[in-house]
Amino acid sequence: MSHHLTLRVYYEDTDLAGIVYYANYLKYIERGRSEWMRATGIDQMRMKETSGHVFAVRHIEADYLRPARFDDLLTVVTDLSHATAARIVVDQQVLRGDEVLFSARVTIVSLDGRGRPVRLPAALSRALPEG
Domains plus CATH for the chain? Predict the structure, then answer.
């Protein structure tokens, strides 16, 4: 399942050169992952309340390919690469039209209430689309 999130670049997202500040791409893809999980049927707040599990980024590989600028309309695309019993790996891109501006592979792990790594909850594993 490919998820698309549309967002606009605001003035606050840019640096003095008028381009999106590099760290903001990480915020954009975080929003994309959150909305992808919501669309997959995963309620992160409910999961935290019922099982104590939360997600954390374990690893990220990122490529900054072209700059986005103030007022650009962007699309964050999120696709499941694969999942194991303990982690989820997603591929994400930030696009302006058909042009890829940023791409990343993100490894997400599940943590318990004390911040220790744990297996993904069974209900979550069942909810994930085939990658």
Answer: 2-127 (3.10.129.10)
